[in-house]
Every structure is written in C-alpha cells, then in structure tokens.
UniProtKB/TrEMBL annotation:
Residues 9-190 form the Ketoreductase domain. This is 3-oxoacyl-ACP reductase. One of its GO terms (molecular function) is quinone binding. One of its GO terms (biological process) is fatty acid biosynthetic process. Pfam families: adh_short_C2. The lineage of its organism: Bacteria, Pseudomonadati, Pseudomonadota, Alphaproteobacteria, Sphingomonadales.
Length: 257
C-alpha cells in the first residue's frame, strides 16, 4: 500500500523549473501527480520537462508565466485546466531575492518589485486557482491545497534584507487569511519557511553569507533538495488535511539558533 500515491492529482508549481520548485515538482511527479510548471524561462522550462519526463511517473507540462503579470497567471491557469482538467494543489513558489540594500539606501522601485513578485504574485495565483477549487467544491468535489514558499527571514532579522523579509512576512499573512477564509471549501493553506538551500539565488550572494549560515544552522549543513520531494508530496496529499494556516520553518533549526 502506497500511503502517498498522488495518481490522478494535479499540482501547479510556480517557479518550478529550478531550485526549490523543481525539487518539489520532482517529488510530486514521482508520486504519480500531473504537474504544471509556471515559470518565465523557456530554456529552463524545457530542461525541467526533460528531467521530469525521464522519471516515467506522473505527467508534466511547463507554461510560460511571470507571476508579476496577472494576465499571464490567468492564461497559465486556463491552459493547465485544458491539459489536466483540474488543479488539486498549488505551490506558490516563484520568488526573487531582495535588493540587498540597507534601509537608508532603499529605493521605492526595488521595494515594489520584490513585493510584486513575492507577495502579490502568490496572492493573484491563489485568486485564479481558488476560483476553480471553489467551483469544484460547490459541485460536490471539495478540497485543495495551497502551499507557499516563504522564508525564515520572515521571522528573523538579516542585514540588508528588509524588503525580502517584508515580502515573505506578507506571504505568511496571506497564508493565514486564506486558511481561514477557504476552510469552508476544505481548502487548506500553509507556508514553508525555508532556510538556507543552495540555489541560483544563493549562488549569486556574497560567499560570506553561506559561511555565516553554515556556522549558525544547528544541523551544520544547507537543506537537501531530495528532502523537498517528500515534503511536497506530504503537503499535496490527504495526510496533511488537518494542517492549515501554519508557517512551518524548514531550516535545520536556523530559526532557533
């Protein structure tokens, strides 16, 4: 008996063509789910599909989508429904790093860009996904999973990262609001507060940041991408049905150090 079989389930993963998103998409496909990646880079989308199709399990498609543009979200949602007929789980994972500036040097344009992608993007993604989920619920097929990629920085202080931290804190608030509002349709909403993982974003950061993190994380290592697979499957499965409105640190103990 496979406790975590997702056959027949459909998941959306924004920003799912690399990093944390691809790790989660990999686990979902391995569990038999159909996965729709919504992401900007056509080249990375194509490479992600090659990897996911090679798993010979669930199906996957990749659709061009910038979550800063609502029209593109709406288009991606429509094409996902055309391909798979439904959406059962949405991983709002797409995000960008902060401007890396101190508060006195902050510029409004940089602040707005981070908030647009990291906070407004998930909100608008949920808008279009939950319209479909609510319609299903009203026709007798309730349920749905909303899972946001947040950050430990939303509850911790880090130098020159106030814009990023604020955007992820807003995402935590969105999660709690969505969980309360949508519970009547058996739709759950949770946020995963990731700590330090090696990704394209962290690779572009100051090397001293990785060194500092390695010393501060109690488990003394970055997060492993293979672990993301089971995490995603759990939150997309029925076994997480009684967990909602939570912001769960996934950080090797970083937030308690």
């Amino acid at each position: 008996m496979n406790l975590f079989d997702l056959s027949g389930r459909v998941a959306v993963v924004t920003g799912g063509n690399g990093g944390l998103g691809l790790g989660m998409a990999r686990g979902l496909v391995k569990a038999g789910a159909h996965v729709a990646i919504w992401a900007r880079s056509e080249e990375k989308n194509a490479n992600a599909l090659l990897e996911l199709h090679a798993l010979d399990a669930g199906d996957a498609i990749a659709l061009p989508c910038d979550v800063a543009e609502e029209a593109q979200i709406e288009e991606a949602m429509g094409r996902t429904l055309e391909a798979f007929g439904r959406v059962d789980a949405c991983f709002a994972n797409a995000g960008i790093s902060g401007s890396g500036t101190a508060i006195p040097d902050m510029e409004s344009q940089g602040w707005d860009r981070v908030m647009t992608v990291n906070a407004r993007g998930p909100a608008l993604t949920y808008k279009h996904v939950t319209r479909h989920m609510i319609e299903r619920a009203k026709s007798g097929d309730p349920g749905g999973k909303l899972i946001a990629t947040s950050s430990g920085q939303s509850i911790m202080g880090v130098n020159k990262s106030s814009d990023y931290a604020a955007s992820k804190a807003a995402l935590n608030g969105l999660t709690r609001g969505a969980a309360f509002e949508l519970a009547r349709y058996q739709i759950t909403a949770n946020a995963l507060l990731f700590g330090f993982y090696e990704t394209d974003i962290t690779a572009a950061a100051n090397p001293k940041f990785a060194e500092w993190m390695a010393k501060r994380i109690p488990l003394r290592r970055p997060g492993d991408h293979e672990g993301l697979e089971g995490l995603a499957v759990f939150f997309a499965s029925s076994h997480s049905d009684y967990i909602t409105g939570q912001s769960l640190p996934v950080d090797g103990g970083l937030c308690i150090s």
